[in-house]
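Ryanodine receptor-like, Hirondellea gigas. Tokens?
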Amino acid sequence: AKLSARFLLGGEHGRLKYPPPDAHSPVNECLLPYQTLSIDPCFYFGEVHKAVVAGPLLVEDDTAFVPHPLDTSSITLAGFIEQVRDKLAENIHEMWAMNKIEQGWCYGERRDDLRLVHPCLTSFEKLPPSEKRYDATLALQTLKTILGLGYHITMDKPPSRIRSVRLPNDPFLQSNGYKPAPLDLSQVSLTIKLEELVEQLAENTHNIWARERILQGWTYGLNEDQDLFRSP
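Tokens:
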């Protein structure tokens, strides 16, 4: 935002009077890896009087984000819809993996956002339990949300075989032998009404994701940090 700020930290010889809370993230670490903190001498403070804090006006909409996904606890799914859940969860992962690789990510045992390495670029069966549970929860909540928004789910006679997208080895084949295989949905077209549903599902999906992360102990941060459980 091209803003500048001055901090008068007080304390004795530069030491803080009150220590930071546990698991705090210093300003210089918050800026990484995209920026490096630069501190220059400044001896002019303007008309700042004692015990007066000068700064920008209060931001009226600066409220904490609290995810509120649609409450689907009272919605039950028909048996034939339940059967779709597991396949939907797997396809959600396959689509995610395909998009990640297209963005330049590759498989690695430990996540590294700078080198674009992610351990979840593997088959659905080999995902960590927390990630597999998230995909399954997302699939279940997506189906329930469709009903909760007033839509109805019916099943047509399925084709004899639903094919998967045949992706080239380069760049999709990973070092662990995994290659995404999402379902080929190129022949499926959506009505205008269903396009509206897509927008509603997208927002609700984000709220589900955020709620799950918060329950796992994640908090907001400018950059993704797996160790400190922070996410933008």
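The mean pLDDT is 83.
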